[in-house]
């Protein structure tokens, strides 16, 4: 490929200046808004206070934008995909930070959940788990056990297995027939 084939119009301007009594001067200037490029590369080198040199390279081409720290791709944007070159990449500044109240109307399944939204959901799940009950029949505190009295009433002791610190509850069933009544 020839050098002239790598050039494009519209990005470089030549401005002629001539002052009276002096030779003319040509200023070559790069346009503020570049057009018709197939790619562009930007390199920024920074020296930290500790003396480390960090080189960040950003490449924009017709298909993607890549940002590299050293030789590692930190972020690549291609089409409709954002990829991190290393584990632990973070996207911040998202606007969908709260969980929609009405998920039947305001829920967009194509949006990623933020940590704030997941925290709200996790808190609700934890509260539901803490509030969940599991009542079970426990040994009777009555010396007669679970036997209907003369009126056909049985009182059962039930306890919430998930909340052992709470007292047992009494559950009464009435109109219970005795075995001797149905024989």
Question: Can you tell me about this structure?
Answer:
The protein has 183 residues and is mainly beta. Among the domains are: 3-84, no CATH class; 135-178, no CATH class. Helices cover 11% and strands 34% of the residues. The chain has a five-stranded antiparallel β-sheet with strand order 3-4-5-6-7, with no helix packed on it. The protein has a three-stranded antiparallel β-sheet with strand order 8-9-10, with no helix packed on it. The radius of gyration is 38 Å and the shape is rod-shaped. It starts with 11 loop residues before the first strand and ends with a helix.
Summarize the structure.
The protein has 183 residues and is mainly beta.
